[in-house]
Write a structure and sequence with these properties.
mainly alpha, 154 residues
């Protein structure tokens, strides 16, 4: 990915899907993001859903965040609500700030109020603040932003 050779995209996707080494799978997803290989977003999403290693899922989410593609929302929402790893949930919450919609605001507020890990709750608040700023909504509280969620520009 760092060399910018887009001819290697197919091989990188195949490596990401089939490599036994966890670091290799995660690095492949990040390389695809570095290459801005937008057409690989769905392949990365499938790998996240199938991978059992929490650190691979976290780093693949980091790659997805770099694409800022709204098609990732349903997956990111699901991860925030259901993944057992706080590190994976934290990365999902962070990435949601860049692809937010009205539903995302509701999910982030819920995460802020109910997630069992402090770092996830802190990241949810940061993401809500970013969303408010990006939509020119003054930040006062999560509840105030939730009340104005329909003003979020998709």
């Amino acid at each position: 990915g760092k060399l910018g050779d887009k001819s290697s995209i197919g091989a990188i996707v195949e490596f990401m899907q089939n490599e036994d080494w966890e670091f290799g799978r995660a690095s492949a997803a990040l390389a695809l993001a570095d290459l801005e290989a937008e057409d690989t977003v769905e392949a990365i999403m499938q790998c996240i859903q199938q991978d059992e290693d929490e650190f691979v899922r976290r780093d693949m989410l980091r790659a997805l965040k770099m694409f800022k593609n709204p098609i990732t929302r349903p997956l990111v929402h699901d991860i925030i609500e259901n993944d057992e790893s706080w590190e994976v949930r934290k990365m999902a919450v962070e990435s949601l700030a860049w692809i937010a919609d009205a539903t995302s605001v509701s999910i982030l507020v819920k995460s802020l109020k109910t997630d069992n890990h402090l770092f996830v709750r802190q990241e949810a608040e940061k993401s809500l603040q970013i969303i408010a700023q990006d939509n020119k909504i003054p930040w006062t509280s999560a509840e105030a932003l939730l009340a104005r969620r329909n003003e979020i520009i998709d």
